[in-house]
Amino acid sequence: MPNNSPPPAPPLDGIFQALADPTRRAVIQRLTAGPATVSELAGPFEMALPSFLQHLKVLEDSGMVSSTKKGRVRTCEIDIQNLSAAGGWIDHQRAIWESRLGRLDNYLNEIQSTEND
C-alpha cells in the first residue's frame, strides 16, 4: 500500500538559514507573485549565474522552493507549506512574549494601584 502522507516539513534551522540572506529573501518575495524561471529570478541580481544557483540550492534544500525543468528552462515556485512552518514558529514565539508582557503589565498596574491607595 503506498504511503500518501505528505513528507515531513524540513527543520526550521534550514528555513531560517535560507531566510538569513537578503538575496534569498528577495527570491522568496518574488516567488510569492507566482512561478518564475531561473533567468527571471537571477535578472535583478548583479552576480554570476553559478553564484545565484547556489542561492537557489539553499532555498530548495530548505524545502521552501521547488523547481521543474522542461527542456532547457528551469522554473521555480514557492512551497508555501514549508514557509508557513517558519511563520507558525514565529507566531508561537510572539504569543508567548505577548502573554508575558501582558502579565508584566498587569503586575505593574497592580503595584501602581497599591502605591496610590
From TrEMBL:
Listed Pfam families: HTH_20
InterPro entries named in the record: ArsR-like_HTH, HTH_ArsR_DNA-bd_dom, WH-like_DNA-bd_sf, WH_DNA-bd_sf
Superkingdom, natural source: Bacteria
Signal sequence segment: none
SUPFAM superfamilies per UniProt: Winged helix' DNA-binding domain
PROSITE patterns: HTH_ARSR_2
Domain HTH arsR-type residues, every copy: 4-97
UniProt-recorded name of the protein: Metalloregulator ArsR/SmtB family transcription factor
Classification lineage: Bacteria, Pseudomonadati, Pseudomonadota, Alphaproteobacteria, Parvularculales
